[in-house]
Amino acid sequence: MQVRIPEAQMARLHAHLEAAYPDEGAGFLLGHLQGEAFLVGGILTLENRWQGSSQRNRFRLEPQDALQAELAAARQGMDVIGVFHSHPDHPAQPSQWDLAWATWPNFAYLITSVEQGQARRTRAWRLREDRSAFEEDTLTLVNGTSRGGK
After folding, report:
1. Which residue ranges make up each domain of the chain?
2. Rounded to an integer, what distance in angstroms lies between the CA atom of residue 15 and that of residue 149?
3. d(CA 73, CA 44)
4. pLDDT in tens, 14-30
5. How is domain 2-142 classified at the CATH fold level?
6. Sign of the C-alpha dihedral, residues 112, 113, 118, 120?
C-alpha cells in the first residue's frame, strides 16, 4: 500500500507534533482509499488525552475524537483513513504499546520521530488484519493544493 499526502498537510502535521513536544501529539487522517493508495486530503489535529505524566510516550484519542473526525471528514466529502502520532526522541516505528492499542486494521498509521522539538522522519504503517504486527507502507509527498482539516 501507499500513503500519498500533500506537502502542505505534512507541514501542518509536523507543526502540530512539534508543538506537542516533548509529549506525543496525535490526530486523524482524512481522505480516500483509492485502489492500493490512501490519499490524504486533510488532517484533524487533536489533543493527547492520555492522563498523567506518561504523555511523553503515550497518546490516547477518545470516542468523541473519532466522532469529530467522522463528522469533519463527512463535511468535506472524505472518510477517516488513518491516525498519526509522534514519538518524541524515538524512532518513527511502532512500539509494542502502539501494537497493543491499535484498533483499526488497514488504516494508515503515520508515525513521526520528533527529536529535540523538530520533526525528523515520518513513516507509514498499516496494522495487519489479525492485529499481530504492523507492515510498513510507502509514504509519498505530493505537490499541490489540499483540502481542509481542522
Report:
1. 2-142
2. 14
3. 9
4. 999 999 999 999 999 99
5. Cytidine Deaminase; domain 2 (3.40.140)
6. negative
